[in-house]
Design brief:
It is built from 14 helices and 26 strands. 32% of the residues lie in helices and 27% in strands. The longest helix is centred in the C-terminal third of the chain and has 40 residues. The protein has a seven-stranded mixed β-sheet with strand order 19-18-14-15-23-16-22. It has a six-stranded antiparallel β-sheet with strand order 1-11-10-24-25-13, with no helix packed on it. A six-stranded mixed barrel has the order 3-4-9-5-8-7. It folds into two domains: 397 residues, Cathepsin D, subunit A, domain 1 (Beta Barrel), CATH 2.40.70.10; 73 residues, no CATH class. It has 558 residues and is of the alpha+beta class. The two termini are 30 Å apart. The structure holds 2-acetamido-2-deoxy-beta-D-glucopyranose (8 copies). One 2-acetamido-2-deoxy-beta-D-glucopyranose binds next to strand 13, strand 24 and strand 25.
Length: 558
């Protein structure tokens, strides 16, 4: 009886333990991925927080602005070297000013094999094209490192990259869309960056979360970008509108109802009173509002439309008046599918921007407002300085919140968004393992291990004792000599009753082996994946713990 219980314990405990560690490893593999900001502010129409990735072999680092657009965001866009020497010859420090350029013939892994006409196609702009923001690009496939070396983020071979030279987009774009790109001459859809992360189970669902950051704040606030979840510390839970359904059209999915725009000067009239549908698109810098609304802004703040540059350029006089008035703007946001509304509040400082070459010859102050017709209403990046958007492409809905700017000392609080049917990846103990829990698992595993070794020794001793007794009693055909007897057992295994007893022990070895596949994702496949998995900053503890447990458990079996 006692032995049966012990055997059961010996079989079941390591198994449970293995399952825990396995689940932790699984969940770790499918956690949200936060891409750290480059800590640079770039742009030709304001200062915007950029993000770094590396393209090609050897890696070429480029700084990009995240692109939330569903269609244009299904590809990574980079500025080609031609974007400097051809498009802006003589511009001092041009490659750096454009977030660094990409040189195709310096990457050994750049490939245009499946593409016709050398990969030259139009940029996949749909909504942006209505705003005149089009361009063409050389497409090709190349290796993409998320982040830069040492950040431990995934390396994805064979990503579609579009290199352009046009000045319509000053920096490249890190497309966030999970939708595949459909190139006309290719049968297969080409997975986007997020599509690939999802396909290879790096993230638990097809979602992203983004806020653009705020250069004007003191200290400056960088943007925040998460794949497969969101960072709860950047979201004001009291000013959150969730469960907004995507619009049916693929290209114009993130549509909100802008109900009013007001500002806080006493007695002031609202700038917008009639609700309009606005598309949120970080590929666009400015606010594209109906001309009547623009005229309200003109009257309220003494703005003058400059037809030559198609901008509301601002002289020092108007600028000082605006600074003195220092209005705070409130955008009341609703949606067709939800009842509530929220307020996104932006100070004038968020609109106090400069344009420079190539938009204007010299630098000039401007107000980021554009006159739009009915197919152009857009809330651009300037709005995303104060708003946090979480888009869930699995459920076809999104959330918009007032963005928060926690001090950099506050740790991120990443929350996974799991695709329907993939909830297990989020619920796994690894999804939110604290250091305490990890320590617990390690200690528990060590205790179990000790019990296991002790039990093993005890049983082995008992067996040997009884085997000797039995061998003597049954008068076997096997030699009684201990060494020879084990040889004989090996030869006549099925006949030997005693071996059955050892079965479970060998089963233990198999359990031990089960650790390998779990650790495997690190070791199987291309080496890089493993290293990146191991190095992921926020969960390296987990893996370290997992490894330790595994090594400890395997030790006695060798
Ligand atoms: C590509 O085509 C598929 C199916 O036809 C569609 O679901 C997807 O939205 C398209 N991708 C883009 C970026 O429009
Ligand atoms: C890449 O192409 C440019 C001109 O197109 C050429 O000057 C340069 O030498 C080439 N670099 C390499 C590594 O082939
Ligand atoms: C990943 O992509 C491959 C090739 O397109 C496809 O066969 C596979 O089903 C995808 N896997 C997942 C989990 O989506
Ligand atoms: C999408 O809808 C689900 C179910 O209604 C809801 O739980 C979730 O919060 C929504 N997601 C977003 C990003 O708004
Ligand atoms: C508006 O700005 C112009 C300069 O751009 C200035 O001459 C004019 O006095 C301003 N009007 C008011 C009402 O402040
Ligand atoms: C527009 O440009 C022309 C020529 O470049 C110049 O003469 C004119 O004053 C400009 N108008 C404005 C409003 O800047
Ligand atoms: C805009 O340019 C002016 C000088 O023309 C400069 O004083 C100001 O700091 C600039 N603003 C920003 C946000 O860079
Ligand atoms: C709005 O303007 C754009 C660009 O000029 C044009 O392509 C589009 O057809 C216009 N839409 C409407 C509804 O007038």
């Amino acid at each position: 009886m006692c032995r049966t219980v012990l055997w059961l314990a010996l079989v079941i405990f390591p198994f449970l333990c293995a399952r825990d560690v396995a689940a932790a490893a699984d969940a770790k593999r499918a956690g949200p991925i936060s891409l750290p900001p480059s800590q640079y502010f770039d742009g030709d129409d304001g200062w915007w927080s950029s993000f770094q990735i590396q393209v090609g072999t050897p890696p070429q680092t480029v700084r990009l602005f995240p692109g939330t657009s569903a269609s244009a965001g299904s590809t990574i866009w980079v500025v080609l070297a031609e974007g400097c020497w051809k498009a802006n010859p003589g511009l001092p420090n041009c490659p750096n000013v454009r977030g660094y350029t990409f040189t195709r013939n310096e990457s050994t892994t750049w490939s245009t094999q499946q593409l016709s006409s050398g990969g030259l196609y139009a940029l996949e702009t749909v909504e942006e094209a209505y705003l005149g923001l089009t361009g063409s690009a050389y497409y090709g496939f190349d290796t993409v490192n998320m982040g830069i070396a040492g950040q431990g983020l995934p390396t994805l071979p064979g990503q579609l990259v579009a290199g352009f030279a046009t000045d319509n987009y000053w920096l490249g774009s890190l497309g966030l869309s999970p939708l595949p790109l459909n190139l006309t001459n290719l049968d297969s859809h080409i997975l986007s960056l997020l599509g690939t992360l999802r396909n290879q189970s790096y993230v638990p669902g097809s979602s992203w979360a983004y806020t653009a950051g705020a250069f004007y704040r003191d200290p400056q606030a960088y943007g925040s970008l998460t794949f497969g979840g969101y960072d709860a510390t950047r979201q004001d839970s009291k000013q959150t509108l969730s469960n907004i359904a995507f619009r049916a059209e693929d290209a114009r999915d993130l549509v909100v109802q802008l109900q009013t725009i007001t500002y806080d000067t006493i007695g002031s009239a609202p700038l917008l009173t009639k609700p309009i549908h606005m598309f949120i698109d970080s590929l666009v810098s400015q606010l594209w509002l109906p001309i009547e609304v623009c005229q309200q802004f003109e009257r309220a703040f003494n703005l003058t439309w400059n037809a030559n540059s198609s901008l509301y350029l601002i002289d020092e006089h108007v600028h000082s008046a605006l600074l003195a008035q220092n209005p705070t703007f409130t955008f009341k946001i609703g949606a067709d599918t939800v009842r509530e509304t929220i307020d996104i509040v932006l100070p004038y400082a968020a609109f106090d921007l400069n344009v420079t070459w190539p938009i204007t010859n010299g630098p000039s102050r401007y107000f980021p407002l554009q006159r739009a017709n009915t197919s152009q209403y857009t809330l651009g990046r300037v709005f995303l300085q104060g708003a946090y958007v979480i888009a869930d492409y699995d459920r076809q809905n999104f959330t918009i919140s007032q963005a928060l700017f926690p001090p950099t000392s506050v740790q991120q609080k990443l929350v996974a968004i799991c695709a329907p049917g993939n909830e297990a990846a989020c619920r796994g103990p690894g999804a939110a393992l604290s250091k305490g829990a990890i320590a617990g698992i390690v200690v528990g595993a060590i205790i179990i291990l000790c019990l296991f070794i002790a039990g093993f020794i005890w049983i082995a001793r008992n067996r040997r004792k009884r085997r000797r007794q039995q061998a003597a009693a049954i008068a076997p055909s096997y030699p009684v000599d201990e060494k020879a007897s084990s040889d004989a057992r090996a030869q006549h295994a099925p006949l030997n009753v005693e071996l059955d007893g050892q079965g479970p022990t060998r089963y233990e070895m198999d359990q031990g082996n089960e650790f390998r596949p779990e650790l495997g994702p690190g070791k199987e496949g291309p080496d890089k994946y493993g290293r990146h998995e191991l190095k992921r900053a926020w969960d390296s503890h987990e893996l370290a713990a997992g490894e330790m447990v595994a090594v400890e458990l395997e030790a006695p079996l060798k």
